[in-house]
Amino acid sequence: MEKYKNLKSVYYENISNNSMDKYKETVNSRKNNELSIYTGLIMSPFKREFRTKEQFEIFYLPSVQIYRLQEDIDSLSKTIEKMMSQLPQVAQTQLFFNNLIDEVQSTNDIEGVRSSREEISLTIDKLMKNNKNGRFSGLVKLYLKFQENKYNTIHEVKDFRDIWNELVSDEIEKADDMPDGKLFRKEGEVINSGERIIHRGDASEDEIISHLSSLVTEMNDENIPSLPKCFVAHYYYEYIHPFYDGNGRTGRFIACSYLSRKLDMMSAINFSSAIVQNKDLYYKAFTDMSNPYNQGEATSFIISMMRLLKKGQYSIIEKLDDGIKKMMIASKLTDNDELSDLAQNVLYIFCQKEIFGNYVGAITDVDMVGITEVSRYLLNKALDELEEKGFIKLISGNPKVHGLTDDIKGKLFED
Asked: Which positions fall inside the Fido domain (predicted)?
């Protein structure tokens, strides 16, 4: 299938031939195509570190590539759901938290925010046990809602500020980076890469509110197909840049939240991780979209974002495939006549943790009581049995934590 060329590429192809006729024809044919979908979102391109005076309404063509990518993404999402259903509940939970940690770490990496997976894991553990909040608790709390099928909806401009408040407000260190308008920033904002300005957000809060109002309309327009609508909204939110800090994290969360309603949860929460693995594709798509010669056409941008999402889905399927194979080994290890039924069950849970929860906090003995739904007395007997036979060892005494021995780990992960 021939690659779809954005209007910027068509322009530069024709300027090298000293002829603009083909470019003008292509612009007219795309803009006036009866299939073209206009979003109602007005943007000014970016050139030589400034927005130009030109204004274009963002539109796209529902091309064959978009249609095929939509089919592939839907099919992969169903595959992921099917593979997830093959896993026991503990494995599913561990995998979700592991991917959540990757997602939060990835979105911090993109923004240059220092964090570690261990730190994020500790925050999750505190939140799950209703203890005091840890660093990035706002970010984690919102993503945790996906597990309960709770999503942040956007029906008015204020909703963007509410999400920002929950997501990143506690992590803003400089007072100058807090919103100084009624809801958003009131001064202009530039985004730099080194010494070069690569984008300018809206110049005033009035302009921000006006553009966000249009974005709310676009996001709730049932006439625009879901994934193109999601990715156009993602671009436009970053184009507006309504805050001094936290725009990237907020924008990606909004996209993830929307994707969680349309696809399986794992595909959605892997979005930032996929971006980290494909940064060049991601940033080039934004740069091309903002080019004056692209004239507001979002077709190639949508294709790039869908390809990125698809890459992330393949990554999840690869993890699941590897995990399912290791679960078969775990089944053989735990199917041991020398062990009591409860000991076999406990050992199987430890294997699930080891396979799918390498970044997730340890399962304490107290946690294990809740998972197995047996008394502490019976659990202790099973743990002693496993420890005596060399399957597990004591890792921590306060709180008490057990884990697989190195010998069992070796058998579990042998090639």
From this structure: 155-304
